């Protein structure tokens, strides 16, 4: 199996059966990601070096506007898509097989967790995986220890309060908090802020 074939498969939302060729390839990608994240996380690197390592992890061009503070964890890496001027704080984990899309200017807080896979509820099929992408809009702020579950879209300018567990979509320019996260406030965005 080739990388693009795997990405086309998971991005279509098809089930990754256990056992299957797709699951075996997912395990291969995990080993590759472990090598690169070990390099990212074990030793000091300049920002430019971290950007180069992140490009190696994702197999995408170097994003010279990405700011990343290690450690950073992922079990795939190849389905992470980062916009311009994104900041990812220490301890972030992205389970990205289903696709993680982060918009320009997003801030990802300490120990945020983004998941894109679910297991089957049936114990006899528990090894099967259901991919669903996470979309984080422009200028979103995920607070510390936020968990975003598979299939969630967070609209532009939203804030997710520290410790929240996001189980469903969050509208643009709102603040969501709690477990499960609920909208607690609307943000009055200025025209200047919405144009950036």
Describe the protein's architecture and organization.
This is Sugar O-acetyltransferase. One of its GO terms (molecular function) is O-acyltransferase activity. The chain has 196 residues and is α/β, with parallel strands linked by helices. It is 24% helix and 26% strand. The chain has four helices and 18 strands. It has a seven-stranded mixed sheet with strand order 1-4-7-12-15-17-18. β17 and β18 form a beta hairpin. α2 packs antiparallel against α3. 35% of the residues are buried. The mean pLDDT is 96.
Strand arrangement across the biggest beta sheet = 1-4-7-12-15-17-18
Provide the helix percentage.
Answer: 10-25%
Number of helices: 4
Order of helix and strand elements from N to C terminus:
HHHEEEEEEEEEEEEEEEEEEH
Task: Outline the low-pLDDT stretches.
Answer: none
The helix/strand class is alpha/beta
Radius of gyration: 17 Å
Largest sheet at a glance?
A: 7 strands, mixed
Strand proportion, as a percent range, falls in 25-35%
Q: What is the terminal separation in angstroms? A: 41 Å
DSSP summary, beta strand count: 18
């Amino acid at each position: 199996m080739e990388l693009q074939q795997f990405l086309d498969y998971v991005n279509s939302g098809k089930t990754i059966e256990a056992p299957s060729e797709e699951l075996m390839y997912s395990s291969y990608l995990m080993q590759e990601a472990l090598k690169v994240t070990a390099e990212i996380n074990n030793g000091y690197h300049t920002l430019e070096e971290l950007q180069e390592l992140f490009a190696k992890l994702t197999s995408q061009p170097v994003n010279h506007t990405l700011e990343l503070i290690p450690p950073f964890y992922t079990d795939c890496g190849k389905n992470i898509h980062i916009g311009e001027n994104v900041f990812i704080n220490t301890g972030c984990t992205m389970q990205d097989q289903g696709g993680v899309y982060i918009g320009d200017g997003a801030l990802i807080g300490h120990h945020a967790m983004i998941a894109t896979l679910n297991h089957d509820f049936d114990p006899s099929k528990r090894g099967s995986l259901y991919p669903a992408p996470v979309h984080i809009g422009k200028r979103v702020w995920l607070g510390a220890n936020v968990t975003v579950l598979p299939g969630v879209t967070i609209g532009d300018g939203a804030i997710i309060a520290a410790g929240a567990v996001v189980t469903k979509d969050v509208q643009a320019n709102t603040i969501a908090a709690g477990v499960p996260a609920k909208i607690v406030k609307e943000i009055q965005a200025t025209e200047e802020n919405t144009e950036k």
